[in-house]
Specification:
mainly beta
Length: 864
């Protein structure tokens, strides 16, 4: 196979070429067809991993970015999501100090694949939760901004493919072991982590080759996240004579601590019985278990609450409350265990056969996923004689009441909730490629894929909260003082830290917890049946594509089309005046998804790209639920109401256009700029409309496809190692990228176009690097501008956006290589102990403050 080459990148190209797998985008090649096959290599160090990623980008016919592990068992960042944030066009949100939500060019609707096969986490959505995959199992991440016809549909923003190791990735056998110890500064706990990879290759006298690989990972990470939230803003009269003041309805302060345990296993076998034939079998399982204890105090003055005279101050020039002292304010104290489980299992068998110009491939795979939420605890109540709240500093205090005295508290409820989700997918795929030789058309490709996916939410949310009225003094043995003395450290906000809370000793045995407070009835086993949904989708897809090379010009490209038919069965319920009956709906939709990728190389190292494609994303499962609740109004039928899902939702569809300019100076230096435009039709919003159901008109609120929206933006990137600098300075390197995204999507609540949620208009990464001799260091800073995190609709104030302020995040690592076999790494994450803040509409209406641990880690890696 012919190969385009970058200067000094032969071994890196070989690494990329070794990744033959379902869904791998095409490379159009330009060098000597007799150049031969290069052996796979092991990537070591930041410089080599970045050079390999650069080469993958250069070789691809699609517009993509790649992240390559800088050693066995070692991505550049400590998690998949944190690595993704370094890619232009990608932004992340954070939970418990880790990356959580991921967007590509502002869109959460992306396709996620593992080794080219669709993979997902069970839940209401369709994508994989990247936090569930141990980073040590991943050899590379590919972010396709412009997917080709051969790739699985479903990515409105793009496609993220995670690659795991295979035995033929390595030229010989390899063994690697990583031991790590990670410490969380706020929770003040350290936890162990380890990962292992073993790979071997065998060749017999006949030339048949067999390989086997096993990779496993076990991580534990202790964490703490502090959050203080002002209550929703409300309009109050009586605080200042003759004025209506916008004031929060109190405060909520919670400290959540616990341990995240992440386990993963991947096994792969490859067999090459003869030239042109290769068979494989691979599979694995990943599991994320989060065990969390939360202690929370809430003070919510009611509408008739009193206040200390002279304590009211407003933000200058506004009617927004700045500070106040409430009197006799109701207090609620919650202590609860919140545990989640996310498990993804996958397996596949397949192979390829090459005979002359024809290559045939087949792949059969199965994925299953399960997730659950367990929530249990107790709630106490009391009254604060004086509650002072300062919105400017975020400080709060209570005086006149001793909340450490159980005589001042009552246990008023016992909490229990449980929610499961399940999902399964079986897929069969066949692909064929035919090489046409040296003419204009170089290769024809085509394939078929049949997939059956199912999803359900079990028995819905099981809700078992029970009211009790037990004096706290009678159960004082199960109470303790609030355990933390440094809440929101570094935020400058004083907080409520002197109160009794539950020990949570029985919190993970809900029956025992209830029995301790006199509740002896059995735990509920099902939730509201109207919320139960079960969905099955049969997807039939096929594609055809052609690859061309202009004989007289440095132009090549890929054109193709993918056709997808989705047949759905959606099961739910209808509730009419409290009577529940089953409801099933069948739907079908067909989409044609053309794509074209053009590449022009006017001179060595310069690449111009243009790409156009059509993409779709199917609605989330809970949005498709056919369940509906109808509430007739017997007095005035014009006020009949209804709420539900919408099984008739159409996929969200987008037309996409990209232009890219890339400059490859050498294997360690590159610049790129990309312009992109998306016209998106059918974003889903909840809208109330009049519908005729069962012979009557109802005002029904349900998800509906909305008007078209636009997304446009610019991505810039630069990477270089300054090898020509004298002496030790020759190890310096710099990676910088910037993303600008402008989006407009209709909002029914606001009645105007607004930016996409969780999308910053501006974001950038600066990564300073050093690699020379045994030393390798990396300091990475990520920043994103203010973004709209949600929309709030409050009685009396109407609808307005909730903004999260701009913030930055700093990570760093240093590695010392004692030898080729042994290296020591020191890492620091969230080194700035970033304080994140959000507000309602403007900064004089603050909403929340968050702080997270600074995480420090030491690891030792051995490989042979």
């Amino acid at each position: 196979m012919v190969t385009r080459r970058l200067p000094s990148s032969a071994s890196l190209l070989a690494f990329a070429a070794a990744w033959g797998c379902p869904g791998w985008t095409q490379t159009i090649e330009r060098a000597d067809p007799e150049a031969g096959t290069l052996a796979p290599v092991v990537i070591t160090g930041n410089k080599a991993s970045l050079a390999t990623a650069q080469d993958i980008k250069y070789q691809s016919s699609a517009i993509l970015d790649a992240i390559v592990a800088d050693d066995v068992l070692k991505l550049p960042d400590h998690s998949v999501g944190d690595s993704l944030q370094r890619v232009t066009g990608i932004q992340i949100t954070r939970e418990r100090g880790e990356s959580s939500g991921v967007t590509i060019r502002g869109l959460t609707q992306m396709e996620t694949t593992l080794n080219g096969r669709e993979v997902f986490s069970a839940g209401t959505g369709r994508n994989l939760d990247f936090t569930s995959i141990p980073a040590e199992l991943v050899s590379a991440i590919e972010v396709f901004k412009t997917p080709e016809a051969s790739q699985i549909e479903g990515g409105l923003g793009g496609l993220v493919n995670l690659r795991t190791h295979r035995p033929f990735d390595f030229s010989d056998g390899i063994s690697a072991l990583n031991l790590r110890w990670m410490h969380g500064s706020l929770v003040d706990q350290s936890k162990p982590q380890y990962s292992l990879l073993l790979s071997r290759r065998w060749v017999n006298e006949a030339g048949s080759e067999f390989g086997a690989l096993i990779s496993l990972s076990h991580q534990q990470r202790a964490f703490r996240e502090d959050q203080k939230s002002a209550g929703n803003p409300t309009q109050r009269t009586g605080l200042i004579g003759g004025q209506t003041v916008t004031a929060p309805n109190g405060t909520s302060e919670s400290a959540s601590s616990g341990v995240r345990k992440r386990e993963g296993l991947h096994v792969a076998f490859q067999w090459r019985p003869s030239a042109g034939v290769e068979l494989y079998a691979e599979g694995g399982v990943s599991k994320l278990f989060t065990r969390q204890d939360t202690h929370q105090i809430n003070v919510f003055p009611n509408s008739s609450a009193t206040f200390a005279p002279g304590s009211v101050q407003l933000f200058p020039g506004t009617t927004d409350l700045q500070s106040i002292t409430w009197t006799n304010a109701p207090v609620s104290i919650l202590a609860f265990a919140r545990d989640t489980v996310d498990k993804v299992s996958n397996g596949a068998v397949g192979g390829s056969w090459k005979g002359g110009p024809l290559t045939l491939k087949a792949d059969v795979s199965h994925t299953s996923s399960f997730s659950s939420l367990y929530f249990a605890g107790i709630g106490l109540s009391g009254t604060a004689a004086n509650f002072t709240q300062n919105l400017a500093s975020g400080s709060t205090s209570i005086s006149g009441t001793n909340l450490l005295d159980p005589a001042n508290l009552t246990v008023n409820n016992v909490l229990y909730r449980y929610r499961p989700f399940k999902g399964k997918l079986t897929a069969v795929r066949f692909d064929a490629e035919y090489d046409l030789g040296k003419g204009f058309w170089r290769q024809l490709s085509g394939g078929l894929r049949l997939a059956q996916r199912s999803a359900n939410n079990g028995a819905n949310l099981v809700f078992g909260d029970r009211a009790v009225n037990v004096p706290a003094s009678s159960v004082s043995g199960s109470l303790m003082p609030y355990p933390w003395s440094d809440f929101l450290q570094g935020s400058g906000a004083a907080s409520l830290q002197e109160y009794l809370t539950s020990t949570l000793n029985n919190a993970r045995d809900a029956a025992a917890l209830r029995a301790a407070y006199g509740i002896h009835t059995a735990l509920p086993t099902g939730g509201d049946p109207i919320g139960v949904w079960r969905i099955r989708e049969d997807v039939y897809s096929g594609y055809a594509s052609a690859h061309f090379v202009s004989p007289g010009l440095p132009v090549d490209g890929v054109v193709g089309v993918r056709v997808v038919q989705t047949r759905s069965r959606l099961d739910g319920s209808q509730s009419l005046s409290g009577v529940v009956s089953p409801l099933s709906i069948n739907n079908s939709a067909t989409d044609w998804l053309p794509s074209a990728h053009l590449r022009y190389e006017p001179s060595e190292g310069w690449v111009l790209r243009a790409a156009a494609h059509r993409s779709i994303t199917r609605p989330d499962f809970n949005q498709l639920s056919p369940s509906i609740t109808l509430t007739p109004n017997t007095v005035n039928p014009l006020q009949n109401q209804g709420t539900g899902g919408n099984p008739n939702l159409q996929p969200i569809r987008a037309n996409n256009l990209d232009f890219a300019l890339e400059r490859y100076i050498d294997a360690n230096t590159t610049l790129h700029a990309t312009l992109f435009f998306k016209k998106v039709d059918g974003f889903i919003t909840t809208v109330s409309q009049t519908e005729f159901i069962n012979g009557a008109f109802y005002q029904v609120s349900r998800p509906r496809n909305s008007d078209p929206a636009t997304i446009r933006g610019l991505e810039l990137g630069y990477k270089q190692f300054y090898e020509n600098l004298p002496g030790w300075l020759g190890g310096l390197g710099l990676q910088v990228n910037y993303t600008y995204v402008d989006s407009r999507t209709p909002s029914t609540l606001l009645g105007q176009d607004v930016p996409l949620q969780n999308l910053s208009k501006n974001s950038f990464n600066i990564v300073a690097m050093y690699e020379r001799g045994p030393h390798s260091a990396r300091v990475a800073y990520n920043w994103r501008s203010r973004y709209n995190s949600s929309i709030s609709n409050i009685v009396g104030l109407g609808a307005f956006p909730i903004y999260t302020q701009a913030y930055g995040w700093l990570d760093a690592s240093y590695t010392y290589r004692f030898s080729k076999q042994l290296l020591l790494t020191v890492e620091g994450h969230n080194l700035l102990k970033t304080v994140r803040r959000s507000y309602y509409g403007n900064s004089t209406r603050p909403q929340s403050i968050w702080t997270n641990d600074r995480q420090l880690a030491v690891s030792l890696t051995w490989r042979h």
